[in-house]
Amino acid sequence: MKEADFMFSKVRIPYGTWGSSYFPAWQMSALAEVNIGQFAGEAMNRILAKRKVAKGRLDYLVLGSTVPWHWKFWNAPLAASCMGRRVPGFHVESACATGLLATVAAAAEVEAGSAEVAGVLTFDRTSDSPVGVFPERRAYQRTVPLADVWDNFGFDPATGGAMIATAGLAARKYKIDRREVDEIACFRHQQYFEAKASGILDKVLVPLDILNVQGRPLGRVDDDLGVRPLSMTELRAMRELDTCVTGGTQTHASDGMATLLVTTKEKVSEISPKPEIDIRFVAKFDMRTSPGLMPEAPAMAVQKMFDRCGLTMDDMAVVKNHNPFAVNDAIFAQAMDYDWRQMNKTGCSLVWGHPQGPTLTRTMIEAFEEAVSLGGGYVLIFGCAAGDVGTSAIFKVS
């Protein structure tokens, strides 16, 4: 295995100090009823306690979310207060790439000496998304209302197209076969349910109780609600919404949160249950492709990153991605000459859903657990994001 330089000399991700909620599909759980920022802060407190990390260790907090929530103006300081810790911090947002961006931003704070233990807290609630009313002098109404989540899914102001149209256009460009896309979706569902049965996801996902403002139980989030096994027969029978895209070969909106910590090499021994496990940042690269071709952007980002750091797909022990469309995986496999069966072995966002902010955070946590189970190695994380952007990163687990 080749050796590559590291992005940060001081920074580590302490093993076993992370956790994620399950991601119930939108409108299917009590998460649709809560202030997601407040819930995320309280949930992080619960996860840190479960991982036996004293919240007093935390001295900085980086939030990542994409859907407006009540009191969002107060961002990280408010979420920190909800977890019972008064620390400074800030909020980042980069559509589907938010989880990875927030983690790198926290690492930069630690590397610069601004923090010793920085928390990364990502979350979103797509259920009942707020409706913003924006001044618009070009319209006779003078204001134009915009439903935050769904209008953005259906319209890219830079291209005029919808998200789903990027999958169809990319599928046509790469001459992707519908049967292969159905096979990918079927296989991804099998991987998820096999991982769930194996118990590896129990190291990642934390059941959480939801309370109302009076402190009374609203419900319990203990499953990725809305996910069910899919057969090839079912997938083949589904109507195409665009080229190679059906209801079964694309993800669904969901709600949830995910958190991890970033710290110095010296602090790992104080907060990790297994400080001998070393997790480091190797490389990160973003790429923007031509208009309307979002699913090809991740492969382009990964290849550029490999060119810069000298690694290849053969060096990767674990490969996981955010794949809102099964088309993404077919294009990546073709562009990188890689077998799509070798990636996403513990599940992926195509199956368990896409709450946006925490999607790549959960993806990273699952990947780190998989790498540890294999004895370490390089971990490749990548995905697409709104605006025809591809994001990618490499970590090393040893």
UniProtKB/TrEMBL annotation:
Ranges for domain Thiolase C-terminal: 289-396
InterPro entries: Thiolase (IPR002155), Thiolase-like (IPR016039), Thiolase_C (IPR020617), Thiolase_N (IPR020616)
This protein's UniProt keywords: Acyltransferase, Transferase
SUPFAM superfamilies: Thiolase-like
Superkingdom of origin: Bacteria
Domain Thiolase N-terminal: 29-265
Family: Belongs to the thiolase-like superfamily. Thiolase family.
Protein known as: Thiolase family protein
Organism expressing this protein natively: Eiseniibacteriota bacterium
Lineage: Bacteria, Candidatus Eiseniibacteriota
